[in-house]
Structures are given as structure tokens and as C-alpha cells.
């Protein structure tokens, strides 16, 4: 599958300091536009581990895996203590607060 590259080489080829071929297997999943976000994922997992994991994944799951890698890297950048767990916990807490507020509004009516 040939990826549509708009602004430059994929993030993996940039990190490995090599030319990104037109049929690069990673350019679809880690395009140049995600360069800053990929840097966080690279700091967390390392490019060799990302490559290994992506190559082992079934084709239909690669896009979801790439997104998960980027999101997890960003989560650990934002919250170095709790990472993705902290993000999920905060969302769950907000849900509890919103449900309580909704319940309070329903009682008033």
C-alpha cells in the first residue's frame, strides 16, 4: 500500500536518519505531520521496539496500533507518573462528576 506523503519522510525514517522510500511500510502510520508526537512515543518505546511491534501486528490492526503508540507516548509526556492510566482515571473522575451534576439537576425538576 503506497502512502500519501505530503511534507516529508515518515517519522521512523527521520529517526533512523535514512531516506524514506515511496513504498515505506511506516509512512502511512507515522507521517511527517506527526513528527512532534512521534518523538514522545520514541522516547517511551524506542524506534526499534516500535518497528518490531508494527511488523508483528496483523495488517488490519496496524493503524489502531500506531495510534495507540502515539497516544501512549503523549500521555506519558503529559503525566510522567501515571501515563495513560492517569489520563483514563481523570476521564473517569470527570464522568462521575458529570453524572452527579446531572443527577442533581434531575432532582430539581
Short description:
The chain is mainly alpha-helical.
Radius of gyration in whole Å, from Cα?
19 Å
Strand and helix order: HHHHH
Beta-strand fraction estimate: under 5%
Count helical runs.
Answer: 5
* Low-pLDDT windows of residues: none
Give the structural class: mainly alpha
| Overall geometric form | elongated
Number of E-type strands: 0
Oligomer: single chain
Helix content: 55-70%
End-to-end distance: 57 Å
> Which whole number gives the mean pLDDT?
91
Main sheet: strands, sense, barrel: none
How many domain modules?
2
Domain LOB: 8-109
Pfam family, one: LOB
Organism: Capsella rubella
Protein name: LOB domain-containing protein
List the helices and strands and how they pair.
Layout: H1 11-15, H2 35-45, H3 47-56, H4 62-78, H5 83-108
Helix pairs in contact: 2-3, 2-4, 4-5
Tags for this model:
single chain, 109 residues, mainly alpha, 2 domains, 5 helices, elongated
Q: Would you kindly provide a written description of the structure presented here, covering whatever features stand out?
A:
The chain has 109 residues and is mainly alpha-helical. It folds into 2 domains: 1-78, no CATH class; 81-109. Helix content is 63%, strand content 0%. The protein is built from 5 helices and no strands. Helix 2 (35-45) crosses helix 4 (62-78) and helix 4 (62-78) crosses helix 5. The radius of gyration is 19 Å and the shape is elongated. Pfam families: LOB. InterPro entries: LOB. Residues 8-109 form the LOB domain. This is LOB domain-containing protein. It comes from Capsella rubella.
Amino acid at each position: 500500500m503506497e502512502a500519501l506523503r505530503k511534507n516529508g519522510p515518515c517519522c521512523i525514517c527521520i529517526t533512523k536518519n535514512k531516506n524514506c522510500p515511496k513504498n515505506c511500510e511506516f509512512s502511512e502510520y507515522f507521517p511527517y505531520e506527526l513528527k512532534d508526537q512521534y518523538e514522545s512515543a520514541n522516547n517511551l518505546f524506542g524506534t526499534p521496539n516500535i518497528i518490531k511491534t508494527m511488523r508483528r501486528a496483523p495488517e488490519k490492526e496496524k493503524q489502531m496500533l500506531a495510534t495507540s503508540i502515539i497516544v501512549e507516548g503523549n500521555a506519558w509526556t503529559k503525566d510522567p507518573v501515571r501515563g495513560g492510566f492517569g489520563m483514563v482515571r481523570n476521564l473517569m473522575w470527570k464522568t462521575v462528576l458529570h453524572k452527579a451534576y446531572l443527577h442533581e439537576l434531575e432532582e430539581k425538576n
